[in-house]
Specification:
The chain has about 300 residues and is an alpha+beta fold. It has four helices and eleven strands, in the order αββαβββααββββββ.
Length: about 300
């Protein structure tokens, strides 16, 4: 019994000693982890951020200028500013070459959707045919009307001449007969003057009508010409040689096939000058205080 107590005491003592030793070793390791020896040398703080490269100079590949077409187009009737033929609307890119394509001046770049303005051109052509027919009909009607009026004047001259002959032959007739012949002659002379005045009035009205229809016809033709010239700009070609880079929108997306182009921002794509580039990077609000002018920058592309 005594031997058992002694052995138990020895084991308990060893355990206590082991715990004390391990505890001190742990505290020493913890102290070593919390403290370090100061060494003099360079202390580097680095900031890594993504960015982009953009050309310092570039040539914009532009879509059709509807505002210029509206200003150069007809201003009345046929559809000028605010007219029915030319309306301000966006353009849709139907097809465009792949980004990064090397092109020369005059090479094909893109095709815009012509549907809306093709319909406008079709309507303008139909309207132009109607205006041309109206003008031709007005000229024909005027020619017939004036011919009839001239015939009536010639006939009235004959009637006046007959009235003069009747008056001359009645000089030996009773005074009442002579007076009646004079009254008839005066009546026919007044009728002749009225026919002459009516002829000039109808002629002036007819010519004014023809001028008005001719003006409408010319404006309609001008609208057709404007639309045809405008639609010719829907096939976009390169203004100079370079590499095609898509236009970037405000939200970061790029204009490509199927994209819509605002008529007030007509850039379809750009041809950047790759000899001079600008590097742009975006630093977070947390790290921006670490960045100062003149610091060394490493750029990786």
């Amino acid at each position: 019994m005594r031997r058992t107590i002694i052995i138990t005491g020895i084991v308990a003592g060893l355990i206590i000693i082991a715990m004390i030793v391990f505890s001190r070793i742990g505290k020493m390791k913890e102290a070593a982890a919390n403290y370090a020896v100061a060494v003099k040398g360079p202390f580097e703080i680095s900031v890594s951020n993504a960015g982009e490269l953009t050309a310092e100079r570039s040539v914009d590949i532009m879509g059709p200028d509807i505002m210029q077409s509206m200003q150069q187009g007809p201003q009345r009737g046929g559809g000028g500013r605010g007219g029915p033929g030319m309306r301000i609307s966006s353009f849709k890119i139907q097809d465009i070459v792949a980004e990064g394509t090397e092109v020369k001046a005059g090479d094909y770049i893109a095709q815009l959707d012509r549907t809306e303005y093709d319909n406008s051109l079709k309507t303008a052509l139909e309207n132009q045919n109607t205006l041309q027919s109206n003008l031709e009909m007005a000229i024909l009607d005027t020619a017939v009307m004036l011919t009839n009026l001239r015939d009536a004047i010639r006939n009235q001259y004959i009637t006046v001449e007959q009235a003069e002959i009747t008056l001359q032959e009645s000089r030996y007739e009773p005074p009442a007969t002579i007076r009646q012949a004079e009254i008839n002659l005066n009546k026919q002379i007044r009728a002749l003057e009225q026919r002459k005045k009516n002829y000039e009035l109808q002629k002036a009205k007819a010519l004014a009508n023809i001028r008005d229809k001719k003006r409408l016809r010319d404006e309609g033709q001008e609208l057709v010409n404007t639309l045809q010239h405008f639609l010719s700009q829907f096939t976009i070609t390169a203004p100079s040689a370079g590499m095609v880079i898509y236009k970037e929108e405000f939200n970061g997306s790029k204009r490509k096939s199927g994209s819509t182009v605002n008529p007030f921002d007509r850039v379809i794509a750009t041809l950047p000058d790759l000899t001079s580039m600008i590097s742009t990077t975006y630093v977070s609000e947390i790290e921006v205080n670490k960045v100062k002018p003149g610091q060394k920058v490493n750029i990786t592309i």
